[in-house]
Amino acid sequence: MGNVLDFVLLAGFTVVTGLLFAGLMSRLMGMNFGLVRRLLAGLVAIALFEPVLNGMRSTILGAGGVSQLYLTLLGLAAAVLGAMICLVLAEVLVPTGSLPRPTDLVRGLRGRLARARRYSRILRIAVRHGLGPYLSGRRRADFEQAGGRSRMADSLATALDEAGVTFVKLGQILSTRRDLLPPEFVDSLSRLRDQVSPAPWEQVAAVLAADLGPVDEVFSAIDREPLAAASIAQVYAATLRSGERVVVKVQRPGIGPVVQRDLDIVARLATTLHSRTRWGRTIGVRELAAGFADAMREELDFRVETANMVAVAAGSRTGVRYPRPYEALSGKRVLVMERLDGVALSAAGPDTPDREALARTLLDTMLRQVMTDGVFHADPHPGNVLLLSGGGLGMIDFGSVGRLDNALREALQRLLLAMDRADVLGVADALLEVVRRPDEIDQVRLERAIGQFLARHMAPGASAGVRMFADLFRIVADFGLSVPPEVAAVFRALATLEGGLTQLSPGFDMVAEARAVAAGYVHHQDPDTLRRTAMDELMTLVPMLRRLPRRVDRIAGALENGRLSVNIRLLADQRDRQYVMALLHQVLLTVLGATAGVMAVILLVGDSSQPQVTLLQTVGYSLLIISAVLVLRVLALIFRRDR
């Protein structure tokens, strides 16, 4: 018992002493470190104190004239200095914040283990269906043949279906990307829309009861067989107590945590494909994964979809109908909305009348949403467009909606108008307003690339198709431009819409119709819109015009009296500060390396008469090594090509 008590007292004394040492080091360095780093540095100081003191006692005390107290203080200072060196090295090798805190490690251990098991299961599914070589960047020889691509597409669809809800949704979105994927993949992935097994009614009823209360008190009747079962939710026909026929959209039970975990896996797989495959970098697989994750998180909250439905319907001026939501009965997992009678565009028969007129109406609706309303349906695939029983079109499923501000809408209008006129300079200027441009760009080379793009897709007799979007994105990527997510959603929605238009009216030329309609929007804006735009511009200019005479008078007076001065903020740009700091670091490394080298030479030459290696020689050799490391680091920075 006494030994245990002694051990506890010794451990407590050691920890307290270590913390005191750590506090002293933090004050001396003028920086605050984490508790673990401070404790370890304090323990290093304690461990160094006795060996350093003994070494000094044997070499210095024998010379005489040095008191024991002074020697103890000197040893304490040397131990603290050694611990400070260890602390600086720890910051260099493992910067603060680069590793998670111990509490975070313990708290997230269960989640990481679950994610690792799920990740392992996804990889096993991919390998079992022959997709392993493609994840590592290799490609089978039969991929270049149509039969090989079809087998690979079928394997991909089967693997996504087996992987679960998030990957089924990913496959559904990929099935609309005819601009990115070959036809074999689009056909195979399209079957994922119709092959989702519904969850049992008992589980769905539990979600309804948790969000709405007793089902019988809200609905006079509700079908237990779903109208549709999707990867995120299931849809049921019901009748309210007031007699109104509605559709009830219910989120699949328990999918929230599963989706969050799978989205992390999707991001990791996208990073792997981006780094290991050329086609992954070409199509921007990481950006696609990020956009997919954002859309999935929005779709998990039906309150977002409710607000989206209200926003899209508020700006609608075409013949397309939108269901009206019952906001009082809707929440995060349940959405009650008006029922539109009709069939999905994907199930429309060949005897549908006025197919070309309906396709033109659908395209006109989407372009109006994008170019004038600023709120648009971002996922208009054929399953989300209805052919109504009474004629006309309806749009459903507003879980993914894009929004554009006035500046982006005007820039897009100028871009489309310049493309319609095949104006190279106009397209280049409008494109640089739409995207995020780098600091330096070769304007001449960009204009030449845009000229080739227009000659390929917009010249008389040229074949314009949905592939033009992929070519435009390729120009953007080649010149280091960055497409904002809201603009990427526009092009993704138009590419998705092309599949529905082709299914509704085979041979429908979406690009030609879009050029005509978009040009008509720009050229034939109603007088009220033009007047409102002019008034907005005038109201913006009036304050500047009002202040202009006073500012001109002040400048003229200062110039006349010789008091004109200009204030310039040096290093106001973050990039300038980073450049100066990098230059200072390089100069500091050079000075430190040279100083360490000179000190090493002095110590080695001055103590060279001793027959054995002394303490000073050991320090000299150590300084020589440090000098060589610092000099080599400076040389590497100087000669590195991408500095």
TrEMBL record:
InterPro entries: ABC1_dom, Kinase-like_dom_sf, UbiB_kinase. The keyword Ribosomal protein does not apply. The keyword Membrane applies. Residues 191-428 form the ABC1 atypical kinase-like domain. Keywords: Membrane, Transmembrane, Transmembrane helix. The chain crosses the membrane at residues 6-24, 36-53, 73-94, 579-606, 618-639. Pfam families: ABC1. Belongs to the protein kinase superfamily. ADCK protein kinase family. This is AarF/UbiB family protein. The lineage of its organism: Bacteria, Bacillati, Actinomycetota, Actinomycetes, Pseudonocardiales.
